[in-house]
Please model this.
Amino acid sequence: EVQLVQSGAEVKEPGESLKISCRGSGYSFGHYWIGWVRQMPGKGLEWMGIIYPVDSHTIYSPSFQGQVTISADKSINTAFLQWNSLKASDTAIYFCARFRTPYGSGYDAFQIWGRGTMVTVAS
Amino acid sequence: QSVLTQPPSVSGAPGQRVTISCTGSSSNIGAGYDVHWYQKLPATAPKLLIYGDNNRPSGVPDRFSGSKSGTTASLAISGLQAEDEADYYCQSYDNTLGGWGVFGGGTKLTVL
Model:
């Protein structure tokens, strides 16, 4: 079965660092773009960025460029989303999602989704 | 404020047909980038409904259809059912600042 398994919920204080994960299974992990999508409480979906695990080529939304780091380790079939210094406004659910088709240019749809990781940042 | 504009809400009675619009610009939908549509139920991950403007993944009922013209894409849902009540999001790509993905603001569908 093709699936993405995300790491568990996190509660952090402002200024702390965090790295959440998304492990793929049941498919050739390296050859499918994986992306991250944010949903803040009561708000809509936001496209954060995508990574192609084979070469770690990454595309960020301008809104998230410099705010987070997307990475991947194809040896363990896992993608990551990282913050160096969290803010209260980072409180949200973060979904990872895989493109529908392998290879490609980066304009595909997200077909396989993780269940989401809830990140709460509060003092 | 989203790059792609959707109506905040739409509604319809069971059995009726509703459409949800997604309006962009010449740097995204109008540039020819594919539009994808997702259904989002509370406390669940989004589900892909339509990809590449008008294609349904396996398992999605043919009550759901997509179209695109110029800078606007649309999702149509016919034979409305109670379980269709959800949030719907369009998604495409924008070629400003190097190219990146964008979602619409989302539309809440209420089945009356």
